[in-house]
Amino acid sequence: MHWAQAALLATGSLYAAAVAWLLVGLRRRPRRCHRQLPPVSIIVPARNEAGTIQACVEALRAQDYRGRLEIVVVDDRSTDTTAQRVRDHVAADNRVRLLHAPDLPRFRCPKKSALAWGIEHSDGELILCTDADCRPPATWVRSMVEHFDLHVGLVAGHARPDRGCRFRQWLLGLDNLAVGALAAGSFGMRRPLSATGRNLAYRRRLYEEVGGFGAIGHLMGGDDVYFVRLVARLTAWTMVFNARQEAVVACSAPPERWKDIVQQKLRHAGKAGHYGGGALLLGAGIYLFHVVLAVSLVRLVQGGVDGITAGVWIAKMMLDGALTGSMAGMTQPGDRRLLLGLPVLELAYLPYTLLFTLIGRLGWYRWKT
Q: What are phi and psi of 272, to 5 degrees?
């Protein structure tokens, strides 16, 4: 057996174990248990979102939650008509409030600064976060609140982008399903590895217990996954994932232009470099697996079909299909058709994993300011 084949089998076994671990976590769906109606504050940071903020606030105003609800939009130094569009809702609904973020951001990441400003100027017992380009369903708040019991301090959810008209956007939708499966599966195993700020809820008490975003304020981004991992490290609160369709948040379609796609994926890939502990070791193992996969692909091109290599590629595709298919079945059964693009995405993941992870870790990308 060639050394590359042996390495492929070894690292492939690690990858298979990781996917199996996530599949087990996906099946551990939390029960709805909260029957009280605590006051809720929805925080929406918005910077130059005049084209989307209208639909976002309308969706939030349509929530069927019967408890006290406030909708806090934080205008993060917008230069367009975002603020004026929100003022129209403020005049029509006393639950809607408009705040203006300070000119000088508190943290390195302006969005974290805007979120912190909104949280500090709200009073809900539960804090729900979403983005200005999102449209939560009317059942969103109620469903998220129902997953808080006495021990649950944070509830994460799935965000589903609109379908773009290009094949590349189709692939990004499939990639979003895979990231959602990573989040849902790892939450189910009580070792959260991913989350999205487009659909996140936590107790104000928990936020204050970890010192807000102070410990992660030096990092770009991370109001979601870095915060979740901070909670896991510093507290004993239980965190769960709400994958019910009634809590899936719709959001804008993925970027269409290649340069925007590259910048977005670099930002996402850069986050993994700040993990530690077991997550870092797992990430290193998965990265090594993709290195060996790349070597095996070169060997296939040079020397023809190799049974072991072909078998590992097929097994990987089947495992990835099972994982993303299971996620689609929980959040949006119609999204299973996205799996038709899986073979293309499998090849695209090679350069993404090998190159973007390194470039993103070095910080060679542009952040929205």
A: -60, -25
CB atoms within 10 A of CB 125: 16
Strand order, beta sheet including 159-161? 134-135, 249-251, 159-161
**CB distance 321 to 339 below 8 Å:** yes
- Position 364 pLDDT exceeds 60: no
Phi, then psi, of 46 in degrees rounded to 5: -140, 125
pLDDT at 276: 66
Collect all residues with Cβ–Cβ distance below 8 Å to 212 and sequence separation of at least 6.
116, 119
CA angle, 339 as apex, 244 and 186 as ends, to 5°? 45
Q: Is the pTM of this model over 0.85?
A: yes
| Structure token pair of residue 68 | 């006290």
Look at residue 300 and tell me whether its pLDDT is greater than 80.
no
How much is the pLDDT for 274?
Answer: 60
The pLDDT confidence band at residue 336, using thresholds 50, 70 and 90, is confident
3-state secondary structure at position 128: strand
Sign of CA dihedral 72, 76, 82, 84: positive
The bridge status of strand 69-75 relative to strand 96-100 is parallel
Angle 267-268-271 from CA coordinates, rounded to 5°: 90
